[in-house]
């Protein structure tokens, strides 16, 4: 069963399904396109350069039903409160029975319920999504460089250590990982560099485009540096012993905040010293034009 859930900035939410009290009757989304062109002297028509997506208009036609008049009045009050435009940005979450997709939006109008009886009414909820993409609710984690544990023993027979010792774990040999973007648009990600012991100047490079992220810093055991490359959220932070701090001043001046292009994205990690002490994780979410 398809459901839509709206959560406002105060944490209040409403769920719309195919039954009372909030019955979703219609759902639509309209996203405009802005074409950027160039016109030469005497040219017929224009030369297409590029385009960009405009805000997305989302509309929900709903029926509100209460078991009696007093409940209906309470439902109407809750609807107006949850969709109060003064609360600012909220989240609309779509579930199709398999996965959740989320889009950030703000009410474009104060909801107005048209009474059909003293227990039932209808309303059209208008929302505006300035970022027109729906996002995966759950992040996908890609581990590029990691240690895999190999050690185990029979607890009943106890632990016996041979003279040649025991292999506790092994290093995954691959320096490259593919992060496919199956969505409808270029996406950002969070790149996480983790130090198992001392290393210097960790980096991550797109094998195809040669764009890269690089941190000019000596990292010590237990230190974590996270690079956020999501549009308008670009940031670099450092964590050590549970203490968070800004690490933007450690970025290489020629680096790029890497994006995930549609299709395959091959990334290679590196460090100038202590490569075997580096663990790299990528956290990503696909973006979709609709649900």
Automatic annotation (TrEMBL):
It comes from the Bacteria. InterPro entries: Siphovirus-type_tail_C, Siphovirus-type_tail_N. It holds the Pfam family Sipho_tail. Residues 11-117 form the Siphovirus-type tail component RIFT-related domain. Residues 183-273 form the Siphovirus-type tail component C-terminal domain. This is Phage tail family protein. It comes from Acetobacterium malicum. The lineage of its organism: Bacteria, Bacillati, Bacillota, Clostridia, Eubacteriales.
């Amino acid at each position: 069963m398809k459901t839509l859930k709206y959560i406002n900035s105060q944490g209040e939410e409403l769920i719309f399904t195919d039954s009372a009290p909030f019955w979703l009757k219609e759902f639509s989304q309209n996203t405009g396109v802005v074409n950027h062109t160039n016109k030469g002297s005497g040219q017929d028509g224009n030369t297409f350069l590029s385009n960009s997506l405009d805000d997305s208009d989302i509309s929900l036609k709903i029926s509100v039903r209460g078991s009696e008049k007093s409940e209906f009045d309470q439902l109407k009050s809750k609807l107006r409160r949850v969709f109060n435009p003064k609360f600012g940005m909220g989240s609309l979450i779509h579930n199709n029975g398999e996965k959740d997709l989320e889009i950030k939006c703000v009410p474009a109008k104060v909801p107005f319920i048209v009474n059909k009886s003293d227990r039932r009414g209808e309303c059209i909820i208008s929302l505006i999504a300035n970022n027109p993409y729906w996002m995966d609710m759950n992040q996908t984690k890609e581990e590029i460089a990691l240690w895999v544990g190999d050690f185990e023993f029979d607890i009943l027979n106890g632990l016996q250590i041979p003279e040649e010792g025991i292999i506790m774990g092994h290093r995954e040999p691959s320096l490259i990982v593919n992060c496919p973007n199956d969505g409808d648009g270029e996406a950002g990600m969070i790149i996480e560099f983790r130090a198992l012991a001392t290393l210097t100047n960790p980096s991550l490079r797109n094998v195809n485009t040669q764009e890269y992220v690089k941190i000019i810093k000596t990292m010590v055991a237990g230190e974590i540096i996270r690079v956020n490359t999501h549009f308008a959220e670009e940031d670099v932070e450092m964590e050590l012993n549970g203490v968070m701090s800004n690490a933007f001043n450690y970025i290489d001046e020629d680096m790029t905040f890497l994006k995930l292009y549609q299709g395959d994205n091959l990334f290679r990690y590196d460090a100038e010293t202590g490569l075997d002490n580096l663990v790299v994780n990528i956290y990503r979410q696909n973006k979709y034009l609709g649900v």
